[in-house]
Queue: 3 jobs
Job 1
Amino acid sequence: MRERRNPTTPPVGWVLIGAHGGAGLTTVAALLNHARPGSAAEFSGSWPTGRRIVLVANSSANGAQAAAQMAANWPLPSSCPALVVVADTPFRAPPLARYRLRAISRLVTAMIAVPYLPAVRNLGIETALQAQTTARTARRLQRRLARVPVDEGQS
């Protein structure tokens, strides 16, 4: 017999931690909460139980450096969680940022890129989520993060 889920309980939960100011935390939270309200929340100061921890950084050299420092100094005995890298421009990330992100890829459980979304910049996240491209990006991010294994130290 299949277990029924309570419709008010999200099937997967995420706690988001920004590696730096302007990381794209609000955008990632809105993408994860699209069609799954309440499934993602920003870090509130106490380590969550039963939710996956996700680091968020933008694709600039400073964002990659902040993510690298956070991953290298991860405070929990478990492995560093997934890292979501939000493109902050429609261009390819600068060489230094790409180098830093490659260097820390072995420190994180998964690294997931969110492309630059012009609708978010032009319309705001709530309106942009009505656009097909943004909604598709939200679903893709939700699926990719749902496949990341939960470390025992995170649950």
Job 2
Amino acid sequence: MLAKILPDLDFLRLYRAEGLWCFDRHDLGLERELFVGGMTELIDAVIAEKPFPVPNPVLLFGGEFNPSTRLTLIWKESRAQEDGEWNRYHCREMDKDGWLGPCLLRFFPEAPQYLHFEIYDAEDPFSVRLVQWLSNKEIGSLAAAALNQK
């Protein structure tokens, strides 16, 4: 019953390409989706403040607050571009802005006012237990797929 109380979360296994953080989500038709427009720098800042190395980063995120997430992106503006809608967010904890591209709308029906997130290491025992616990929820197969993608 506890799983019904907590809001849904999603996971992305992050990796570097062309000097930027990116991810794959084959179930959503996304491959080598780059974090641009300040988001790679934001991810770097979050990882740099960790007291331990994060060689296999996993981004845990959702549109509603969850105790597993400690950082918040606050929506600031949208801009229509040739390739779709881009949304600018501000992370108050890191005092940084970044843009999320049209693929945001593959995860949400519209750009959420708040995106709550955290970055964990896929090899960290806590992260593995968290994913195992969440695997009892509907997103379990997505979480497992995100962790297994390289």
Job 3
Amino acid sequence: MGLNHPALLETFFAAGSIGAAAVLVNPQLRQAEVEYILGDCGATTVVFGQDQRENAAGLEAELTGVRSWVSVDGGGPGEEYERFLASGSEELVDEPVEQDDLALIMYTSGTTAGPRVPRSRTRQPLLPVRQHPDRSGPAPGRGPPGRGAPVPHCRADHDDAAHIHAGRDHYHPPSVPHPGRGDSGDIAVEDEDGYLYTKDRMKDMYISGGENVYPAEVENALPGLEEIQEAAVIGVPDGRWGKTGRAFVVLFEDAPELSGNEILTRLREGLATYKLPTRVEVVAELPRTTTGKIQKNVLRERA
């Protein structure tokens, strides 16, 4: 838990060498968020920096499953990092580690529920760069030129919109039985070669006048206007069309004033009418989580 520091790399590789999984915790998270992550993943050793010292002190008594607290700068609960290292054995650890062993757990920022938990296996950070001479085709994890890399254990359900399901590369905490798969919440299209192309998040898509509208498409078009720095689009109820779009845009600091109607007029040149938001609001900033993800749930409440 903390900002970039040499101890981060040392801890990461030390965990891998004994077959343990490293869990990286965003240093900006509050105590309740940190408590959720450490409790959910079943952490037994926590290495923390100065920025998480206060949270560590508040959680030491709460998280009884944590056996060791280690402070990089010496403040807070537990042992000081260098002393912790010095107290260890100098004998090399030769722990068998398989390619399918869990290596890394990264909690995403959940905007409508708890964080999702993508995970990485031992083999994934160590994919070979060069192709073995006895093999033909692209190296493992690398798609053909211009294509994305294959995503292991994923499939799409073929209904009106394909839903991507992630299999065993999503982590499930020790207290939760492994359900076999999890729905990523993404919408994708599959081409004739079986490649998936993500379009948007399922919860963000809305239907306007019988047409599917993907906010990401509109959001990508808005920064094409030179005055606009970033944008977010949501669907709002409409008595005639079911739902219509509402856009929130942030202008560059040195940009001239631009009204919502002016933005809509210029958007019409590149977007079909049903994709156009019915209203554009110019705002000072967009609400974000601690990891920088736009909180569309907050925008929906504001709308």
